[in-house]
Each structure stands twice: as structure tokens, then as C-alpha cells.
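User: I'm designing a mutation panel for Solute carrier family 22 member 7 and want to avoid disrupting the core. Could you give me a predicted structure to guide residue selection? Please restate the sequence first so the numbering is unambiguous.

Assistant: Good idea. Sequence first, for numbering, then the predicted C-alpha cells:
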Amino acid sequence: MKFEDLLLEIGGFGRFQILILFILCLPRINLPMHFLLHNFLAATPSHHCAIPYQEAFVNLTMEEVLLISIPQEPDGTFRSCEMFSQPQFHLLLNSSLQPENDSIVQHCQHGWVYDHSQFTSTISTQWDLVCEQRGLNQATATFFFIGVTMGAVVFGYLSDRFGRKAMLLLSLVCSVVFGMLSAASVSYSMLAITRTLTGVALSGVSLIVLPLGMEWVDVQHRTFSGILTSIFWSIGNMLLAMVAYLVREWHWLLVAVTGPCLLSIVCLWWVPESARWLIANGKVKQAHRHLLRCARMNGRKDFAVSPEVLRRMATDKKPGESYSYISLFRTPVLRKISLCSGAVWFGVAFSYYGMSMNLTGFGLNMYLSQFVFGAIEIPAKMVMYVLVNRAGRRQSQAWALILTGLCIGANIIIPKSFTSLRSVVAIMGKGFSEAAFTTVFLYTSELYPTVLRQNGMGYTSFVARLGGALAPLVFLLDEVWRSLPEVTYCGVAVCCGSVAFLLPETLNVRLPEGIEDIE
């Protein structure tokens, strides 16, 4: 008897599973609020050099003081990082006569003045992370994703070793602790360290939520549960725009996006450990108790199975045998799956972040843009719900990623003057990219056996974070050739999408329990 047969007897998608899925969707909402928080946390408002008061300025307006103290750009705006070493009073007569002598221009000597009309404070204004220090501002996002990368490895292994629920609880508690410490940061160094540790903790949430829910759901409803969970990511996207709009001070913004983790911790009380994991690890009595509870909630009161039957369901995991990331590459079929799924994850993340950082032309403010980008993802996921059940996981994954690459490639050819057409193609590409991301989470969790599922998810998540980290660096290639970044994104997406054709189809296939089911 397989676990799928047990699910049919206790109800594979009843009140029990619906309760679990909705509880697990709460932490899923929280994830994008942290992953995309950098846009608001580290936003840099317009700024200029601070000008010390002089007696000569007594009869001048602020605009006139700026005119004689700060150089102007060709478009008439004041430079953000430079000032005149001495006031240029002749500019009061004709402001177009900008000095051509660079020797009288110097970097800001007395700090900066910021426009606080949009943000009360950000980490940029708190620690003057502008001009020469601008790299430190961008580095806060890098530190966070380094944490996410490390967390993918750590929690992937720990959740296969010590259980899904225990590690999910640990990651949520750590997320609250380090999130609140980030909000209380008194120095840039403290913020960088706490944001890195927050990334490690949230990586565990990202990694465990989907498989924990999926392992309680039958084959027929597996796709629905995967898509439902991913839609809550988009809802989190839209909520981030609303929260950031209402909270303009960075300390309180961090508190606002971290607080909901407390609700997830409380609600986790009603979520049981994965019975699949318990059986695979020989913890039969606990699995038996959870299965009886599931049958009771789903109205299957006639269900009866003895712990001895569960013991006979043992997988190929021998007593004392432990699995690690090396196990993903030991046997031939599993090795092929690991190599190919790693390539697909890299391509998905690489093209997704490449497009997300390059999708412009909406003409909306940043709050509305954030909301619209979250809303656009939902139709893409609805379409994928139909496609993965009709065309299958493999075809959907491959073509979503290939079409993402083709949309990026099309915008290389379309002239810059066709702004509307370029925007439409870019939005289509963003939709395909989101569809590829949605599918890859569902697909990967079905490819690996129960005894290695979290190790597999941890490994692929690690590869994805590498793709996400490399994506922004590719923009530097425009110094070699202006279109080289787009050509790179296009090529990687098409190649990695093609690799997906080498993976096995998992539509309506039982989740593998042990390595023998794969081989």
C-alpha cells in the first residue's frame, strides 16, 4: 500500500486539507513583503548638497541660493552629489552660463538635504547612503539574498532531517526576532547583519510551506493547492504596496511587514507534521494519530488502519541511513533530474529578476507600480492552473520559460520609438516569467521522493538564488554592447527552458516515496 491509497481512504482534499492550506498561505503572504521590501526600505529621494549659511545669502530665496551653489544638469535639475567651492553670483543674472571649469566643482562637503514629500525616512536618508556611498545602499538587498541563499541549503537539509513543521516554526520565530532587530538597528552594520539573518530565516518559510501542504493533498488536487499557495505571493505583493504607502518611516515599515509572522506562528498550532515524512522516518505512531484526525475532520469515520500497516509502507530508507545533498547525485535518474531541474531554476530566476529590474514605461508612481505588478501575476497563475493539468508540467514549464526569452529577444528588435508595443511585449514576458516561476515550484516538489524532497527543494532554491544574484550584474554588459544584457537574458531563458524537456512528466503521477520509486 502506498501513501496515495491512504489519502483516498481518509479524503485527499477535504476540510482538513483546506484548513492546512489556508493556514500555510498566511506566511506565504509575508514572503514578498520582505523579498521586495528593498524598493521602499532603501528608496533614495531626490537630494542635493547641504549649503552652509552665509551672510551674503541674507536677501536671496532658497531657489537662488541653490542656483549659485550647486551646478545644474543639462535638463536644468540640480546635481545630487556636487557643489561649487565658492558661490557663483553671476548665475543670478543668467543661469544658463554654467561654469565650464571643473576645478570650482567639488563633492558635497556638509551632507545632503533630502526631499521628504514621499518618504519620512529611509535607510538612504538615515545614513546618507548616496553618491559615493550608494553601493552600500544597494548592498542591503545583496546581503538579504545572500542570507536567503544560505537558508535554502540549511533549511532544505534540516527539514528532511528533523521534520517540516518544526523547521517551519523555527524559521518563523527567527524571522520575527531578526525582523524586529532590523527595525531597531542603530547602525548600518547592524542592519546589514540582521537583514542577512532575516533572509536565512525567511528562506526556510519559502522552502517548507509548499511541500508541507502538498504532502497532505491527493494527486487530483495537487495542482490546485500549488497554484493557490502561489497566488498568495501575489496578494503579498499588492499588500506591500498598500503597507508601504501608509507607513513612510523605515523603522515602522519593517515592524509592519514582520508583525504578521506572529499570526502565522499562532496558527501553525493547527497544522500537523507531514504524515509522509513521519512514515518515511519510522515515526509511525505520530503519523497514525494525524491520519485518524484527518479522517475524522473529513467525515471518514469508518477509516481504520493499524500502525503495523504503516510500518509496512516503509520506503527504501534503511534504519540508520541518512540522506544529504550528495544523495541527489548518487543514482543515475535522480542525478539527471537534479542537474536538469537546477538548470531550469537558474533560468527561471535569472530571467524573472532580469525582467523585473528592466520593466519600465508604465508612468505610474512606485506604489501603484508595485500594486499593478502584483495584480498582473494572478491572471498568469490562473492560466497556468489550466495548462499544467491539460498540457502537463513539462510542456508548461518549458514553453513558459522559452516564451519569456522570446519576449525579451523581441524587444531587442522592436525600435525604441514603438514604446506602447515594447511595453505590451515586456508585460507579456513578465506574465510568462511569473508563469514559469509558479510552475517550477509545483513541478520540483513532485520530481523528488519524500525522503529527499526538501533536500531537492533546498538545492534548486540555492541555484535559483545564484541566478537572482547574477541577474543585476548582467546590466553592466551594456558597456560592451548596448543589447548584450537582453541577448544574455534571452539566451539563458531559451536554453534553460529547452532543458525542461529532459525532465519526466509528473501529471497525475503518484508522489514518489523513496529513491526506488524514481529509479
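For picking mutation sites, this is relevant: The first strand starts at residue 47 and ends at 49. The chain has three domains: 1-38+132-317, 47-114, 327-518.
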